[in-house]
Amino acid sequence: MNILITNDDGIESEGLKVLARNLIKLGNIYVVAPQKPQSAGSHATTLHKPLRAEKYPLHIGEKLSLRVSGTPADCVLLAIDVFINEPIDIVVSGINKGPNLGDDIIYSGTVAGAREGAINKILSFAISVNDFENPNFELAANVSTKIIDKLSKIVGSKTTYFNINFPNTNRITGIKFAKLSRRRYKNRVFIGKDPFQKEFYWIGGVLEDPYEEGTDSKYVKEGYATITPLLIDQTDYTMLEALSKVNLEI
Fold first, then answer.
1. What is the pTM of this model?
2. Burial level of 193, CB count in 10 A (0-12/13-18/19+)?
3. CATH number of 2-182+212-243
4. Domain boundaries defined on the chain
5. 103 is in an annotated binding site
6. Is 96 annotated as belonging to a binding site?
């Protein structure tokens, strides 16, 4: 099995290294990751300037390790089209420092790495831990490796990709398949002034609670690891069917 690993925290991230050391149990490891952190870069693809790539050995037994002056989506695209001559069986993006839950996945570079794999019809996974300071990468990597091993044997669809999130704990309560939550923030923009008294805007905010039952955010808060299957096709088929009855002739 050939496994491509990327992330959005940059190739020097400990989460990527711990993940690679675990996934090597399943097959050949190829690492193509951003040179610099790309958090909240979503599915950005670099079209307006050239990209650079250079070897960056991790010394964990990988077949190839490259750092790229681009985004996670860039890394996966380049790996598939240029860097790796063998067929890639699985793409894994992570392990991300911090959660990628609910509709926050729209902004996530980690999830974008997995999405790019799915766009190219490769079974793909995004992995995150719900902590920014001291995430337990070892637990997430160990359990994720078991999840990936099992799902790769039973999931037939190559265009479904999976978003996996872990609570930051030494022992998870269990594993839940979950739908995405709605993530709502208050005080989303801080307005300040720089030393020259020019106004600036800093996007952030405070997350609001509670979460709906059965969602990834709710389960992670309760100590569960969550798995959410996602699709590339974002078509609202219910609305499409309703609109098919509307006469828009002008």
1. 0.94
2. exposed
3. 3.40.1210.10
4. 2-182+212-243
5. no
6. yes
C-alpha span between 33 and 206 (Å, rounded) = 30
Query: Are 32 and 80 in contact, with CB atoms under 8 Å apart?
Result: no
| 39 in a known ligand binding site | yes
For the chain, 250 residues long, give each residue's pLDDT as a single digit of tens: 999 999 999 999 999 999 999 999 999 999 999 999 998 899 999 999 999 999 999 999 999 999 999 999 999 999 999 999 999 999 999 999 999 999 999 999 999 999 999 999 999 999 999 999 999 999 999 999 999 999 999 998 888 999 999 999 999 999 999 999 998 899 999 999 999 999 999 999 988 887 899 999 999 999 999 999 999 999 999 999 999 989 887 7
What are the residue ranges of helices labelled H in the chain?
14-23, 72-78, 109-119, 137-154, 216-221, 237-243
How does DSSP classify residue 87? P
